[in-house]
């Protein structure tokens, strides 16, 4: 396990104990010292019928002036980073979010972000089986992330988003979903995946075929409403299915 992966699991363990949104805010701000980002935001994407994006931010840690301008001017609808979240499940750098040169609104959002010291960033899309839900975005004047650091932030982001959603839902007195019943084999496969093992490595450890491991992981992902393995592991940890 890499140093960044170890940090990620330590952060996830603390996020698991978060009892209020301010706990998530504090933990994610502190994580910036390890990964090099200055600010972050956890947000939902607006539904088509929503007339305002003001309530989309779950845990905002943007500079106050930028946060106010961003949501008052509905930039979430034209932000090329937010729009790219709808098209991919893979984390990406802000610079990798495509937009045409004639998209004045998109260019304006990116240009104005630099006024607040947000020249570079990294975004983790969060998708449900029904489609994109939102994302976690990290910003800085300069952000240099290794591939290991990106993978670590991927895991942390999924867990932070899901924990924030849970706390907000519980605050609204909406009953949480009953934890799905996973088989012992599905849990074993998830544990080895969480430990950084590939499907082939897990199959060797469990004395079974790689195809069987992948079958159990797909079933676990379906039961946990996850679209990829990282999200599946994070959701299993959030629900206490694996430690």
UniProtKB/TrEMBL annotation:
InterPro entries assigned to the protein according to its UniProt record, in alphabetical order: Sig_transdc_resp-reg_C-effctor, TF_LuxR_autoind-bd_dom, TF_LuxR_autoind-bd_dom_sf, Tscrpt_reg_LuxR_C, WH-like_DNA-bd_sf
Matching PROSITE patterns: HTH_LUXR_2
A molecular-function term among this protein's GO annotations: DNA binding
Keywords: DNA-binding, Transcription, Transcription regulation
Single biological process term from Gene Ontology: regulation of DNA-templated transcription
Cross-referenced Pfam families: Autoind_bind, GerE
HTH luxR-type domain sequence ranges: 175-240
Protein name as catalogued: Transcriptional regulator, LuxR family
């Amino acid at each position: 396990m890499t140093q960044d992966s170890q940090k990620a699991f330590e952060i996830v363990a603390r996020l698991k104990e978060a009892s209020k949104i301010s706990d998530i805010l504090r933990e994610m701000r502190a994580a910036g010292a390890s990964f090099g980002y200055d600010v972050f935001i956890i947000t939902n994407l607006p539904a088509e019928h929503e007339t305002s994006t003001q309530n989309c931010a779950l845990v905002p840690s943007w500079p106050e002036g930028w946060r106010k301008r961003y949501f008052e001017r509905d930039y979430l609808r034209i932000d090329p980073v937010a729009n790219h979240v709808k098209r991919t499940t893979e984390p990406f750098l802000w610079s990798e979010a495509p937009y045409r040169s004639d998209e004045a609104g998109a260019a304006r959002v990116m240009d104005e972000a630099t006024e607040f010291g947000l020249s570079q960033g990294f975004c983790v899309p969060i998708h449900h089986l029904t489609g994109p839900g939102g994302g976690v975005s990290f910003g800085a004047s300069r952000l240099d992330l290794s591939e290991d650091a990106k993978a670590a932030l991927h895991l942390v982001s999924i867990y932070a988003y899901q924990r924030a959603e849970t706390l907000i839902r519980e605050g609204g007195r909406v009953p949480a979903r009953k934890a799905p019943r996973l088989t012992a084999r599905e849990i074993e496969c998830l544990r080895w995946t969480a430990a950084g093992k590939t499907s082939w490595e897990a199959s060797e450890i469990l004395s079974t075929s790689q195809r069987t491991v992948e079958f159990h992981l797909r079933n676990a992902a379906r039961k946990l409403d996850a679209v990829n393995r990282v999200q599946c592991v994070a959701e299993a940890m959030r629900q206490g299915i694996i430690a």
